[in-house]
Amino acid sequence: MTQTFTLTLSCAQRPGIVHAVSSFLFEQNCDIAEHQQFDDTRSDAFFLRTSFVSAEDVDIERLTAEFGSVAAKFGMTFNFNGSDLPRVIVMVSKMGHCLNDLIFRWRAGNLGAELVAVVSNHEVLRPMAEAAGLPFVHVPVTPATKPQAEARLLELVDEFDADLVVLARYMQVLSDDACRALRGRAINIHHSFLPGFKGAKPYHQAFDRGVKQVGATAHYVTPDLDEGPIIEQEVIRIDHSFDPARLATVGQDAEALALSRAVRWHCENRVLLHGHRTVVFS
Q1: What is the CATH number of domain 85-278?
Q2: Which of 9, 72, 121, 166 has its CA 20 to 30 A from that of 145?
Q3: CA 210 to CA 190: how far, in whole Å?
């Protein structure tokens, strides 16, 4: 049976990188199925994503070890990934539109991930999760119990062997320690193009400002609130006839679209971090 793997890497730009990668894969009897690269001329940085197949058994650990000499020559940061679907925990509060969309795409087989549990600080969305056959874990949060709640979250990440945590309108701010523990493996969705309309009732704020576009931003979680590296943004044009309720409905559509794309691209190893930015291979 043919196996599919992905190599992602970044390093300083210099001649010979693509040749070295393709030669290595050829020597491993692997066939390149998809290749994308990006040269950031402003920082002299190079980024690469190569998907390849092999009809032979491939040991990821052995492949990683043998590629080490190539990586050392070019100063690469790299990662090999197999075809196993990443395991995802979804965190929610009371709004279910993003969770519902993720469940639909997961069950349809086009999310690129395996949902393994839903964690919430409220009980409201338990029926939605359990109807989909997903374990639902209620972790109440108060100012006094927040450290214990976050410790429980990190325990759940280990218990479910989760590769990614998705904050699907989870209305709690993670502590700096939790953000650092989940660096590069937690995605949040924010209503609007950051940093606009923070705080309560964002769509009322948008209505009061007479906006003509409603947007949503999916980004990695960092200690800087809602300012993590952006993965995807979605925008929907509206006009003066949209009241706050209708704006919210359109905004929820944008949130669901941006979040599902960000989750899929992350799980397909299409997103490479580049400081406060991302390189996203479509």
Answers
A1: 3.40.50.170
A2: 166
A3: 19
Kind of pairing between the strands at 114-120 and 87-92: parallel
Tokens of 57: 């058994």
Task: Please state, rounded to an integer, the average pLDDT across all residues of the chain.
Answer: 94
pLDDT in tens, 37-74: 999 999 999 999 999 999 888 899 999 999 999 999 99
Helix, strand, or coil (residue 234): strand
Full DSSP string of 23-79? HHHHHTT-EEEEEEEEEETTTTEEEEEEEEEESS---HHHHHHHHHHHHHHHT-EEE
Is residue 226 among the annotated active site residues?
A: yes
User: CA–CA distance from 113 to each of 10, 81, 105, 149, 213 (Å)?
Assistant: 24, 13, 9, 25, 30
For residue 194, is pLDDT > 50? no
Which of the residues 226, 239, 243, 253 is marked catalytic? 226
3-state secondary structure of 251: helix
CA distance linking residue 92 with residue 125, whole number of Å: 8
- Fold for domain 1-79? Alpha-Beta Plaits (3.30.70)
Q: Is 74:13 a contact under the CB 8 Å cutoff? A: no
Count the helices and strands in the chain (H runs, E runs): 8, 13
CA distance 136 to 74: 45
Per domain, the residue ranges of the chain are 1-79, 85-278
Angle between helices 17-27 and 60-74 (to 10 degrees): 150
**What pTM, to 2 d.p., does this model score?**
0.93
Contacts with 257 (C-beta within 8 Å, 6 or more apart), sequence order: 101, 216, 234
CA-nearest of 84, 141, 81 to 114 is: 84
Strands 164-167 and 186-191 come out as parallel
pLDDT in tens, 196-224: 666 677 778 878 888 888 889 999 999 98
